[in-house]
Amino acid sequence: MMKSEITVYSDGGARGNPGPAASAFILFKDGNEMSRRSKFIGVTTNNVAEYYAVLLAINYIYKNNLFKDVEKIIFNLDSELVVKQLGGNFRIKNIKLKKLAEEIKSIERSIGKNIEYKHIPRTMNKIADSEVNIRLDENR
């Protein structure tokens, strides 16, 4: 039997930096869309919103036991900073980001699967980006 794979497209954005912010993710399992979520997160920075999107997604995967029959979980983000920090290539100096990263890493350990963070061009992350903008428009 072939092992399953989860692919997540996540994005966060703030209008103004800091400014009103939102986070979103779209989750696919073996190519089929399983979930699409977005959340207005108040006034914060782009980077916090990007991290929060990953946290929302990984939390959703964990709470709904979606990882049980999965070999690998891939997060696609257009934030190179978040990809490099979560991948362990950049040190995290910002306290808020460090706290979010620690939460993400804690859930990663609970899931216990191969989790990969990939940097993708913004043009390949349009669905998650539009979910963020919809949420921001609703909270003007």
TrEMBL record:
Which PROSITE patterns does the protein's record reference? RNASE_H_1
The record ties this protein, via Pfam families, to:
RVT_3
Q: Which SUPFAM superfamilies match?
A: Ribonuclease H-like
The Swiss-Prot or TrEMBL record annotates one GO molecular function as: nucleic acid binding
Which InterPro entries does this entry report, sorted A to Z?
Answer: RNaseH-like_sf, RNaseH_domain, RNaseH_sf
* Domain RNase H type-1 as annotated: residue spans: 2-140
Write the protein's name. Answer: RNase H type-1 domain-containing protein
Output the lineage of the source organism: Bacteria, Candidatus Woeseibacteriota
